[in-house]
């Protein structure tokens, strides 16, 4: 028997839906690291030193450095998301640090969709119950997509760009619901000047 | 002979305000009950039907009385029709709310067998036999005739029929946030939107019709020097241009809920889209808002008198609006009965439109408004201090005349007169309509002077404005709207907000208040009361209310249920005020009250409710990485998963496949997708202590590299979960539990960790989705794995061994388990590697006869081994002792979750049900799960049930049926006879131990 090969969720990467103002795609399964550290300045600095990054301390803030995204997911909890081949290096760095917490690799647990374009927010409004307005660039939220728990990240792109990360087992369902949500051709034009309705 | 249809469309007149919403250059063809008709762009279905002199639209629900259009809005109880054909046929649409479209096919409902001949009308003659709630007292005897009754009731009951084909249209839901929701786009709503947006708040203004302005177009006058309608148009233009206001038309609020949630139902036209096949037909807005303003206006109240339901009877303001908006007259010979000035306003308009005003009947004894005097001066025939006391009908049940009597003396034929008329317009005054407040639990207060309900105490964040708040004059409405908007701003901002109330010069005739005198006088006979309809949609009369009150149902909720008042799709919008007045008269000591209004406020389609949740999106389905590779399997739902149940070969039945798979596993090697199994990492210096506290089983002495089967109990001592706990490192454990339970078990762990033991130093991580997992079972597993490159010595595994390392080039875990009573090992690799592992193992196993097997076979193998299944053998009331697993409970541990509960005396009493085996005397008979067990099948009922079958199946290994059962004191009755009740018979069986099979041999 040979070395095992990797199969990405939904045969990623590929485009799932495209419109003039919107694209929906599934990207390669990301590498994922779950970090849980006890509270405290010392632990936080220790972890930062090992990772060579300043882990965000404000709720749902993210830091994007060198292709890796560090996401605050709770007090003393972070998710690190990036290319799969980079995760092992982070684990090694943390192995020898006095973080007194738990570092768990979860690569393969999440699938990752990207919706981008000026119509991205409106698509998200069809599948996500959260108020999107208060979510700034480089912020994340734990929420649901069509009833499925998921992490969403608003990327820093000037054009709307969001990552949606549900558990891998929900990839097919989330993909189908994003494609369905992308079908509506006309924009809502919420709070934009419009022609008055008849009186 | 059919009556010749008249054209009731008023010709266009330059400079007039008649027909302003229709475009006479765009005629539209449509059919009604198969008859070709014509309307214009801008018509509603109702206005087009009226223009074509359609008097009878449908039949009423209970008595099949002919009914026509009564109103012009969603409050109309009669104008319920079916539109469309085939898969686009939609029943129960309100004709007043649907815009006419080319080639529309419209049909009456509740007519049987056809619209032309409704034999259901014969039911009306049986009215004396059908008092309120007769249906609860009849159709019971003789019992066998129920089948006949049921068929008839199903044919005659209900309104509309469900389309037979699947709905091809799209529907969607959308989540939106705003600061203020304003319900109603009339003057009050527009003023409120102005006020709220002036504070830069985000405002959503929702209007259920396709236009704003409410009924402002029913009045003449000027505001700030401009014609009223022009002034409104200017305001709407400003709102539409604002970046703070979003206007939704053709959208109704279906419901208001806690925490600022509003469900809005928007009707769209896919044909107006550039991609009709992708555009939604309807959209549900789930709007979260900080303040809601109800500017929902008021309903014009019908009058209640004998035979007040005939086709041709319409609300006065509605008739005026039909003329102004669509250029249609309701009829040609018109009687108007009014309790206020609206009737006169309508008389003036209809006269200008060419109708003959036969009489204006004013129920007031001494009207003195300017409109009264104007119409009197014009020579309009008037009857002051009079009331309609009956109507006569034509051949098809339509209105033919009105009987009018003087109000002061209503008996005596000399004081009655009759007017031939094809139309009776009625106006009982305005009843505020803030009923949506009821969705949030607000109770409205009955105003006797108004004869309607006003807002009472409102929950925080909810405000009412305009006519819905009892303000009817234009100046009051505008001011009240602005006030409500300002208060809403303060509520949202949490601070005072100073705004200057705009002042307007308003020149719109103010009406005298209408008198709440629309009720039948007390001298009415029982027969007259029995045809005086209060709730038109459900055929509820004053006589019905009399009977209900006489029988002791005096509370509004009881009256509602006893008579069906307000239970129609209109929720009694036009009935609630009149019903309160009837009840106030009959029950003078009671406070008039209304029933509970519930969402949806107006009917919405099932398609809208479902949105995109249909077909493959009906509900989330979870898949393992192997779904694509196991497409030959028969699947079974397990929570949100649909794992393979069995892999039948061509020509094999499900049971045959299970037996084949089980034999293959017992004799060779089987491969099972175990990815669904829960995997939770518990790690940290206190991980061991934590798990030892959580589990009833002793885990303190578990060695690294070993695993142990353990039980978790709930607080009451009942079995909550079973799991295999593996010690990967000194302070890292892997908990492997049942399929699909990760979320529950993680939550259970976190609850105890955070609430009870926050000082423990440990971390809990759900790793379930990270790992793809295979179960290899059977005596030839070591042979198969010999070819795999691995630094895990799986071949050297003993039962309960656990190891981590590398397997075929990737990180892996291996656990020797005993799910199936055969040698077996679980191998877990990162999820993305699982398909490759499955394929390579399958290929390598072919010479060994490897078989894929599913959950059906797994259960059968476990049954053979006497292993319990949490879903089958436990129900939340089963203890470890009941399952014969008392040795898994470490009773001398100082604490474990559930210990106290387990120590209660009742938990160990000998009569409790124990899990035992059941071997049927006929080895081929497989008792169904759930079958009862009795000691004496011949005992007359009721027989004492001593237990029930929990799992069963045919064992291909032992060549006989096996069953597990929970039986009272079962452990003491091993070897005894018991009878399985199946299909009325008692089939004999022997109670046995659950150890049916061990090391390949029957025990």
Automatic annotation (TrEMBL), chain A:
Gene3D superfamilies: Heterotetrameric sarcosine oxidase (3.30.70.1520), Probable tRNA modification gtpase trme, domain 1 (3.30.1360.120). InterPro entries: TrmE/GcvT-like (IPR027266). This is Sarcosine oxidase subunit gamma. The lineage of its organism: Bacteria, Pseudomonadati, Pseudomonadota, Alphaproteobacteria, Hyphomicrobiales.
TrEMBL record, chain B:
Residues 633-893 form the GCVT N-terminal domain. Keywords: Oxidoreductase. Residues 532-611 form the SoxA A3 domain. It holds the Pfam family SO_alpha_A3. Residues 179-364 form the FAD/NAD(P)-binding domain. The keyword rRNA-binding does not apply. It comes from the Bacteria. SUPFAM superfamilies: Aminomethyltransferase beta-barrel domain (SSF101790), FAD/NAD(P)-binding domain (SSF51905), Folate-binding domain (SSF103025). Residues 913-997 form the Aminomethyltransferase C-terminal domain. Belongs to the GcvT family. This is 2Fe-2S iron-sulfur cluster-binding protein.
